[in-house]
Amino acid sequence: MLAFIGNRALLAIPTLIFISFISFVIIQLPPGDYVTAYAAQLRHAGEYISPLQEEMMRDQFGLNDPMIVQYWRWISDIVLRGDFGYSLEWNAPVSTLIWDRLMLTLAISSASLVLTWAIAIPVGVYSASRQYSFLDHLFTVFGFLGKGIPDFLLALILMWLAFAYLNMDVGGLFSPEFQNAPWSLAKLGNLLSHLWIPLVVLATGGAAGLIRVMRANMLDELGKPYVETAYAQGLSEARVVWTYPVRVALNPFISTVGWALPALFSGDVITAVVLNLPTTGPLLLQALKMQDMYLAGSFILILSVFTVVGTLISDILLAWFDPRIRNA
Amino acid sequence: MGSKTMKTFDMPQERLLDVDNVQVHFPLREGLVKAVDGVSYHVNKGEVLGIVGESGSGKSITARSIMRLLPKRAVDAGGQVRMQLRSGEQFDLSSFGRNSRAIRQVRGKHIGMIFQEPMTALSPVHTIGAQIMRTVQLHMGLSRAAARERAIDLLAKVQMPRPEQLVDAFPHQLSGGMRQRAMIALAISCDPALLIADEPTTALDVTTEAQILELLKRLQSELGMAIIFITHNFGVVADIADRVSVMYLGRIVETATVDDIFYAPKHPYTQALLRSIPRLGVDQGRRLPTIPGMVPDPFSVPPGCTFNPRCSHALSGLCDTQTPPEKRFGSQMSRCHIAEQFAQEPVHA
Ligand SMILES: Nc1ncnc2c1ncn2[C@@H]1O[C@H](COP(=O)(O)OP(=O)(O)O)[C@@H](O)[C@H]1O
Ligand code: SF4
Ligand SMILES: [Mg+2]
Question: What is the complex's ipTM, to 2 decimals?
Fold first, then answer.
């Protein structure tokens, strides 16, 4: 088991180096650079900077150096000093820009993952063991609705409901008075009262699909001979179902843990924008638009680290859960 | 638990299990399938009853109705299954619900079951030890440590090599024969009075099959348990059974001691099955006779004797209109209109 983990972890390192280099290069692929984008923005606002000034800025930011030199400067600072560089646009260290958002993103995605599973697993198991029952049909309808309605629409509907009927202020994660307040119990309470909408939105979208997956997996497993063997031992239905087929049916689930981590970073940007969440998605979008390469590069790097680490975690969980993989 | 120690029905002292006129139907879109159409047999304490019949004749479904483990779509259409232990305890199994506490205290404890597919009949994500321990902890109230000890003992008893290590093995790490040994250890883990073995060797190669049969015979005499041994292979039955019931299309057509079945069969279907067994020396290089015709599809079972379209003795006007009654010749039973005719002539020399 330890050898297995070590093996997978070692494999992850070259993957990460490769991804970091490629992402750095891709960010700079579009014509122009941050200074071009910055000048265009200024012109748009009716101001003007001379080509000479542009050149000076480029020199100052080191944008004229060869790509490989820029990459090395960036990545060595990260690895050796934990310094993610400076956001040109925000004129602030990348780490201060990202850190809070990163933590919130992590919190929201793990909470929504837990909620998704807490809904999807019992419902899927119930639906399969009571196939074609009234509740099974009801859950099926819910599942298709949940999958059919886009997340951002659901977010808008919930926001409107909460605002119009519950008289809550919605959008963002804090009420204005707490926005810049130091952490306190009141601030935490305020966070929780805002958090439920994004959680419900993310969890229903995810759960709707996973219920179908869990139900199908369970139906497969329930028909297998080892389930009959378990019944023939005199175990109760609940014990048979939860100790045997559920264990096997969960395996495909576990392999998706890895994707859940980076999902909110990227896939759920629209929901985050609609809900005005200070997560990482909207910031990344902006950084890419401005070719703010250190910020964008760091983002993508962290995103990749999460993906790789997430995949690593699900591999390990899967091996721990399923002996057939561990011994393969 | 109301039936504990209570004597609720009369049964001969030596009787362990009585299966009486059991009927199981499958209402399918294409029509009603009477998969088990009035099956009766009995098993005495410590005896091996072989059940033989072509695939689809209802052997497994009958066995599952004893355990109350019928498929979801099956309809229990009548009949009675009763069991009587050495202690005098009696159970009216057919009155128990599928998930009732009463039947759960019989399953695994008084009746063990072995299935055909050793590859898939054990949970792939639990060690064989964990699966055995769960059963003995459930029925014998053992501690974890004691249950593990017992699991190792059981594995030794079924001649699993290195039981102390293989108790922690997962099914996929074992060969088919070893898995079937683990399955047997699980089935006998609580010293059941009855073991139902549903084609336990069908999926195995000939050498392994012989070893497993040998093991079952040894365990049977060691533990004094009775066995219902289901197979479609007459050769296997000769090896292990005391008595044999032959099934065709959801009914028992003949029951007799193993000697009578082989040397004085009184039903044309039994005779036809026997003729299709290859015999060493005699049949080398000769094509074996097969039973003419096909097993009718379950939606259009022939009227009268269900075997009549394939029977070379069939009498038109009788066999295709009237269901033959059970005819008894001492302990032998045959459901054939002309069973008396076979009373003397030995068919299978
Ligand atoms: N799950 C099921 N659904 C529908 N019909 C079934 C099912 N299981 C068994 N049957 C019917 O019952 C008949 C007897 O099955 P079974 O007892 O498994 O036969 P055997 O064990 O003798 O090969 C089959 O031919 C089939 O028509
Ligand atoms: S009853 Fe008639 S058809 Fe049936 S087995 Fe006997 S002889 Fe053949
Ligand atoms: Mg069968």
Answer: 0.92
Of all protein residues, the one whose alpha carbon is nearest to atom 3 of ligand 2 is B308
Q: Closest-lying ligand to the alpha carbon of B115?
A: 3
Q: How many CB atoms lie within 10 A of CB A47?
A: 9
Q: Is the CB of B192 under 6 A from ligand 1?
A: no
Q: Which two tokens stand for residue B48?
A: 């091996």
Distance between Cα B237 and ligand 3 center (Å): 15
Kindly determine whether residue A225 and residue B117, on different chains, have CB atoms separated by under 8 Å.
Answer: yes
Distances (CA, A) of B171 to A84, B128, B154: 50, 7, 16
pLDDT band of residue A149 (cuts 50, 70, 90) is confident
What domains are there in chain B, each with its CATH number? 2-7+15-241 (3.40.50.300), 251-277+295-344 (no CATH)
Determine the Cα–Cα distance for residues A105 and B176; give it in Å rounded to an integer. 50
Of A225, A236, A323, the CB nearest to B120: A225
Closest ligand to C-alpha of residue B337 is: 2
Question: Does ligand 2 have an atom closer than 6 angstroms to the CB of B305?
Answer: yes
- pLDDT band, residue A150 (cuts 50/70/90): confident
> Structurally, what CATH architecture does the domain formed by A101-290 represent?
Orthogonal Bundle (1.10)
Instruction: Please tell me what DSSP assigns to residue B107.
Output: B
Q: Using a CB-CB distance cutoff of 8 angstroms, which residues of chain A are in contact with residue B112?
A: 232
Predicted pLDDT of residue A261: 62
Instruction: Report the alpha-carbon distance of residue B205 to residue B187 in Å, rounded.
Output: 21
CB environment A162-199: b (16+ within 10 A), e (fewer): beeeeeeebeebbbeebeeeeeeeebeebbebbbbbbb
Q: How far is the CA of B75 from the centre of ligand 3 (A)?
A: 18
A276: Cα within 13 Å, side-chain hemisphere: 12
Instruction: Give per-residue pLDDT as tens, A196-210.
Output: 777 887 788 778 888
- Tell me the whole-structure pTM to 2 decimals: 0.82
| Kind of pairing between the strands at B243-248 and B226-231 | unpaired
The residue of chain A with its CA nearest to that of B127 is A323
Q: Distance (Å) from the C-alpha of residue A323 to the closest C-alpha of chain B?
A: 6
- CA B95 to ligand 1 centroid distance, Å: 22
Domain spans of chain A, in order of start: 101-290
Measured between alpha carbons, how far is B101 from B91 in angstroms, rounded to an integer?
13
Give the pLDDT of residue A276.
67
- How far is the C-alpha of A208 from the C-alpha of B338, rounded, in Å? 65
pLDDT at A270: 57
Q: Running along chain B, 349 residues long, what does each successive block of 10 average in pLDDT?
A: 58 94 94 94 96 93 96 93 94 94 96 90 95 97 96 97 96 94 97 96 91 95 96 89 96 96 94 80 61 80 93 93 94 95 62
pLDDT score at B4: 46
